[in-house]
Write a structure and sequence with these properties.
The chain has 183 residues and is α/β, with parallel strands linked by helices. It has helices spanning 26-43, 97-103, 116-129, 155-169, 176-182; strands at 4-9, 47-52, 83-86, 108-114, 134-142, 146-148, 151-153, 172-174.
């Protein structure tokens, strides 16, 4: 079996109902992510936390030093788990995530987090392009309604579309319960 790592993407306070960018189903997704994190910790699987901040502080969300950038308490890292701060959508871009995965001998990754259509999508595609087999826990990810061309696409449809695209060409997409049962 390949050495696995769990990447927890942007499960930050900004996405909670009290944040500036609330996501549909974020609390349920974070609860499922917490189950995957607990399982990883019990098995000695390395956990890598990603935290998004906008470097210049000019953005209306993810402002450095604000409560919004803090990782949600339900998925808070332990002192031994790295927190990788990123300033871009892709968690690998201008960070040491790849180096940290390589240093720990990670050969495959499991991804949970937010937002399904942005940062989760970007890290999954990048990891797959780097040769990592990827598993996404679809019910440990969340997103929001999107609008394009005057059409509002419900979050559930955005999420389903992203998971279908990722499963089509980038990795395995499964539920948290199925993942935990098989692991």
């Amino acid at each position: 079996m390949k050495k696995r790592g769990l990447i927890v993407v942007d499960l930050q306070n900004e996405y909670l109902p009290t944040g500036k960018l609330p996501l549909s189903g974020i609390e349920a997704a974070a609860a499922n992510a917490a189950l995957a994190i607990a399982d990883a910790r019990n098995k000695g699987t390395p956990v890598f936390h990603i935290r998004h901040e906008f470097a210049n502080g000019d953005a209306p969300v993810f402002v450095p030093g604000s409560d919004g950038v803090d990782i949600q308490p339900v998925v808070a890292p332990t002192d031994s788990e790295p927190v990788i701060v990123k300033n871009h959508i892709n968690s690998f871009r201008e960070t040491d995530l790849k180096q940290q995965l390589d240093t720990q001998g990670i050969e495959e990754v499991v991804v949970v987090g937010a937002m399904s259509h942005m940062c989760v999508d970007a890290v999954v595609r990048a990891a797959a392009d780097m040769g990592y087999p990827v598993t996404v826990l679809h019910d440990a990810c969340a997103t929001l309604d999107l609008t394009f061309g005057g059409v509002t696409v419900p979050a559930a449809h955005v999420h389903a579309t992203m998971m279908a695209a990722l499963e089509f060409g980038y990795g395995t997409v499964t539920s948290t319960q199925d993942y935990l049962s098989a692991a």
